[in-house]
């Protein structure tokens, strides 16, 4: 693996899509799509404009990092298909990043061994905090993951608060989530596009909400997390690559009668 590969990062798992390009994990530029759910229409023009901005060509891209789910079934397929096309055309290496980790990375930074640290002190540092990333899974359910400040190792070597993922990606209803995480005195901070229309369903005394500007996963965070995986040689097999739907999409079978 080259030391400074040109990277394309794609986030199309949620309502607001985005793409980014970077070198060695550092973002050169990021474009957020102009309208929600416009991924198929905007993804290729956005990539082209970003490359032109830095006088780069698609053939120079060596790594493609995508938000691999859970999330929008259509959006995940768009990113997966793009990654496979790029691999066939230019022999790029692919990394898939957990979408809920990407959303959480807006407020806590992923560091090695699935441990996280507070970013820019957006979370009040009380030594006992939790963060939940929430995406709409439809049918009254939500994709949810929870991250908690590590009590045994409250700061890393750089003096940042250390966090760990304590609830892997799962499907939950708001009542199930609140019964498990809002029934004690420990506060929990929420973010994610799943709150856009359903924030009221997650209201409780010990629940706090980040500002809406932190809710959506972004390609720049896909690039950051993807690069850390690439450094560990955690590349996806393009032939076997499938999105992490977490559950099967709805299928309607039309009757022939």
Brief descriptors of the model:
single chain; 257 residues; alpha/beta; Nucleotidyltransferase, domain 5; 2 domains; seven-stranded mixed sheet; five-stranded mixed sheet; 5 helices; 12 strands; 23% helix; globular; disordered C terminus
Descriptive notes:
- The chain has 257 residues and is an alpha/beta fold.
- It folds into 2 domains: 111 residues, ATPase, nucleotide binding domain (Nucleotidyltransferase, domain 5, 2-Layer Sandwich), CATH 3.30.420.40; 100 residues, Nucleotidyltransferase, domain 5 (2-Layer Sandwich), CATH 3.30.420.
- The chain has a 7-stranded mixed sheet with strand order 6-7-10-9-8-11-12.
- The longest helix is centred in the first third of the chain and has 18 residues.
- The N and C termini lie far apart (57 Å).
CATH superfamily of the largest domain: ATPase, nucleotide binding domain
Could you report the average pLDDT, rounded to the nearest whole number?
A: 86
Task: Quickly count the domains.
Answer: 2
Widest β-sheet, arrangement of strands: 6-7-10-9-8-11-12
Per CATH, the architecture of the largest domain is 2-Layer Sandwich
Apparent shape:
globular
User: What's the CATH class of the largest domain, please?
Assistant: Alpha Beta
| Distance separating the two termini | 57 Å
Q: Secondary-structure map with pairings?
A:
Layout: E1 6-11, E2 18-23, E3 26-32, H1 39-53, E4 63-69, H2 73-90, E5 93-98, H3 99-104, E6 108-111, E7 115-118, E8 130-138, E9 141-149, E10 162-172, H4 174-181, E11 188-191, E12 207-209, H5 219-231
Parallel strand pairs: 1-4, 4-5, 8-11, 11-12
Antiparallel strand pairs: 1-2, 2-3, 6-7, 7-10, 8-9, 9-10
């Amino acid at each position: 693996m080259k030391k400074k590969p040109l990277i394309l990062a794609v986030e199309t798992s949620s309502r607001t899509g985005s793409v980014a390009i970077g070198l060695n994990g550092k973002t050169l530029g990021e474009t957020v799509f102009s309208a929600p759910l416009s991924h198929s229409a905007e993804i290729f023009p956005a990539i082209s404009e970003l490359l032109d901005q830095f006088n780069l060509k698609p053939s120079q891209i060596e790594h493609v990092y995508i938000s691999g789910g859970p999330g929008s079934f259509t959006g995940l397929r768009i990113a997966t298909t793009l990654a496979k096309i790029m691999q066939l055309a230019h022999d790029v290496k692919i990394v898939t990043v957990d979408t809920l980790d990407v959303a959480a990375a807006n407020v806590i930074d992923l560091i090695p061994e699935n441990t996280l640290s507070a970013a820019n002190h957006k979370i009040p540092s009380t030594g006992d905090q939790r963060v939940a990333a929430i995406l709409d899974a439809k049918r009254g359910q939500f994709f949810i993951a929870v991250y908690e400040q590590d009590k045994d190792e409250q700061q890393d070597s750089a003096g940042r608060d250390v966090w760990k993922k304590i609830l892997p990606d799962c499907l939950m209803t708001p009542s199930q989530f609140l019964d498990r995480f809002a029934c004690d005195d420990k506060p929990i901070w929420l973010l994610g596009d799943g709150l856009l229309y359903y924030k009221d369903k997650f209201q409780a005394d010990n629940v706090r909400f980040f500002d809406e500007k932190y809710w959506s996963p972004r390609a720049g965070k896909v690039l950051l997390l993807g690069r850390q995986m690439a450094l560990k040689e955690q590349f996806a097999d393009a032939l076997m690559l499938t999105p992490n739907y977490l559950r099967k999409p709805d299928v309607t079978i039309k009757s022939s009668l």
